[in-house]
Amino acid sequence: MDTPDNTLPKEERLCNRKDISDLLAGGTFCDAPGCLRFCYRKGTGSGLNRIMVSVPKKNFKRAVRRNLLKRRIRESYRKQKHAIDGTGTDILFIYSGREIMSYSDIFASIGAAIQKINKCTQTDRAESSGR
To answer: pTM here?
Structure first.
């Protein structure tokens, strides 16, 4: 029985400052349903899809609540990461709400974000092949 790999190893996390600044400078910012924003950049050459999660201290003063939201976002991504088309995508998830969303709502938002990334990259591929 072949099950998808539902892990999130260090290689799939975005940690390098240069990579993060490149993502913020050259990435595409979008909104997902709910309180989630994301920024992505295709074709990083890393061979892996890498993510970073941010929950601003401005909205959640207590670290316990920030960590809860980051855990929920990471787990939602981890369970749906196989749905991303291709490899070499850097993604930054930013939680912009002021209330704590349930896990099921975050799961749905991450799924919508992944679909949006896939749709945008397919249109980019179609435009580049049409030239």
So the answer is: 0.88
